[in-house]
Write a structure and sequence with these properties.
Blueprint: H1 2-18, H2 25-36, E1 41-42, H3 43-50, H4 56-69, E2 72-76, E3 82-86, E4 100-105, E5 111-118, E6 135-139, H5 142-146
Parallel strand pairs: 4-6
Antiparallel strand pairs: 1-3, 2-3, 4-5
Helix pairs in contact: 1-2
Bound molecules: zinc ion (2 copies).
Protein name: Fur family transcriptional regulator
Pfam family, one: FUR
């Protein structure tokens, strides 16, 4: 357990370095929270987890800088709430971070990134250009399915 925590801290520091982000206390904590969660987190979830360690503005700026650098991506779930999830580490710059399906569980309300399912590229009529593409699926997640 102790070792796992140390691993997370190491990974967190490495990621911040990789994305050229300064290591601030808030960034380290928010990032390790996102690393430990399998599902995407809403701003309010993160706020709750942090208690009163950091104010709203600091958290907002932290998430914004993560998103700007491509370390996290935001997801609009079915209810319209914005959630944040870590972007998969991509080997090539060409590969888009948001090129995957998001799964909304109707039982627990959690949103998951299905990184292993790639969205095929679309052949659009000439003159059309896609800036962003969002695929989301609704159903029951594996945890809720077995309970
Ligand atoms: Zn579920
Ligand atoms: Zn995602």
């Amino acid at each position: 357990m102790v070792k796992q925590k140390a691993d997370t801290t190491e990974k967190t520091k490495k990621l911040l370095q990789q994305y050229a982000l300064r290591k601030t206390g808030c960034r380290l904590e928010v990032l390790s929270l996102l690393l430990q969660n399998k599902s995407a987190l809403a701003h309010s979830d993160i706020e709750k987890q942090m208690g009163d360690k950091f104010d709203r503005v600091t958290l907002y700026r932290t998430l914004h800088s993560f998103e700007e650098k491509g370390l996290v991506h935001s997801i609009h779930d079915v209810s319209g709430a914005v959630k944040y999830a870590l972007s998969r580490e991509t080997s090539s710059q060409q590969q888009r971070h948001d090129n995957h399906i998001h799964f909304n569980c109707t039982a627990c309300g959690q949103t998951f990134c299905l990184n292993e399912i790639n969205i095929p590229s679309l052949s659009l009529p000439s003159g059309y250009k896609v800036n962003s593409l969002h695929f989301s699926a609704q159903g029951v997640c594996s945890t809720c399915e077995t309970n």
